[in-house]
Every structure is written in structure tokens, then in C-alpha cells.
What we know:
By secondary structure, the chain is an all-alpha fold. It contains 15 helices and no strands. The protein has a single domain (9-296), classed as Orthogonal Bundle (Farnesyl Diphosphate Synthase). Helix content is 77%, strand content 0%. It is globular, with a radius of gyration of 19 Å.
Amino acid sequence: MGKLHAWFRIIRPPILLISALGAAVGALNVNLDPDPLTFWLALIAWAPLVYTGIMIHNDYTDLASDKINRPHKPIPSGAISAKSAKWSGLGMMASGTVLAFFIDIHNGNINLSAGFVALSLTIVGIVYNHWGKGWGIWGNVFVAYGVAIIPFYGAVAMEPVDGIIAMAPLTISIFVMEIGREIIVCAEDVEGDIRAGFKTFPVRIGAKKSMVVAVFFYIGYAILYPAPYLFRWDILPSLYYDPVYLFGATVFAIVLFATWAITYKEMTEKAFWNYIRTGTRVGVIFFQFILLISAYYPGTI
């Protein structure tokens, strides 16, 4: 594996895309005509810097487990040194956090909301990477926060006050869903995590039982996601939890339950990779595009 290819793999292009799209969804659903420089600086601070930095740093802290579960990854394979990954990840997180405070400085403003959200993610990411896999389900809660906060960050980057309330329903429903998904992801890694000494939730209660617990979080998401549509959560003129949103959220819920059912039945590495990691990511990207449609063409379905 060449160096360039190794760095391309370690930045996780699908997750980079998801984090960038998610932030854009939050931003454009509260402000359809944002300041272009503020918008792009916000995305640069978030996706290629803070979020990708956390992922790279995670590969450094997960080395003991990855040597068993995924020896082909860039660090355990020797294509990238652990030291390079550690400091690259930390440097990217620090740069992105600082930039988040100053995304609107050309207009004479410091965006405290965006800055503190980015800072909170950096802290949560570092804490989880070093200790989260020893905290059982609380480690999954930390990761879920990092995923759910993506559209929230985009919203407050454009509307530092109103964006907080506007994006709360979507953020909460994604948070509940992601706890379940992260439990399932950890269930795939039980063998390596046991040998690495990680005390994840699936390690503590078993992979199969943890899958059963995970589906209840999916059910929680299914209960929560219609709420902003049913109660007409139109906080800002540009934000609509409308039939377009409801369609996308429903399709995503179907994807979640279908991929869970197939994976629970098979419980193989191939099933986890094809359905949980790849399948649900495709579902997320689909949902994000639907939310972008909802921002520009509310009520079209």
C-alpha cells in the first residue's frame, strides 16, 4: 500500500462526505442564502479538519484491536506510522476548532456557537478515542453525540441562536438512532476488542444480546422522527419539517431495520460490512440529499 493510498484510506472518504453533507444540510435548512465564505469555511473547519482528524486519531488509539480485526488498515499494516496518525489527527482537530470560531471574522463576527460545538466534538472525540471503549454503552453515547451534532453544527454556523432550536428535533432523533448503530458496529469487533482489553457494551453482554438492545434505539428513532412534522416545527422561514423530510426519514428507518434484521440473522463479518457499515451509510447519504431537497423545494412530495 503506497503512502498516498494509505492516507486516502485513513481519512475515510465516505465519512468525510457524510460529515460535509450533514453540515451543509443543517446550514441550508436554516439559511438558504448564506454568506458564501462563511459557509465554506464552516464546512472546511468541520469535515476535513475536526471530523477527519478524530477519525485518524481513532485509528491510532484503536491500533491494538485493529491488529486483530483489520490488520490491512493503514496503521497496523505499517503504511502509516502510529506517531504520524496521532499528531496529524490532533493537529487537524485543533486547526478546525480554531477556524470554527473565526468562520465569520470577515464580517467582524466571532461565531461562539460554531466554535464551541466544534470544541465539544474535539473533546468528546479525544476522550472517546482514548477511554471510550472501556465505558460500555457510554462509549456508544459519546460516538452518537459526534454523529448527531453534525447538522446541528451546520445550523448554528449560519444562525448561531435560532439554529439551536431549529435543528434540535433532528439532532435528538439522530442521537437516539446512532446509539443503536454504534452498538451494532462494536458487536462486529468483539473478538479483537476482547484481546485488546476493550470493555465495549457487546464485549460485556455478548454480540447477539447487544444487537437486541440496539434495535430498541432504532425503535426510539422511529418514534421520534415524525415529531417535528406532526407538530409543524417551522422555527425559521427556510426550515421545513415537511412531507419531503417525512419521506426521507421513513425510508431511512426502513433501511435501518432491514439492515439490522439481515445482520442479526447472519452475524458474519461480511454482513456487518455490507449492511451496517455500507448499507446504513448509503441510507444516511440518501436521507441527507432528501433533506437538501426539503430545504430548496419544501412540500414537493
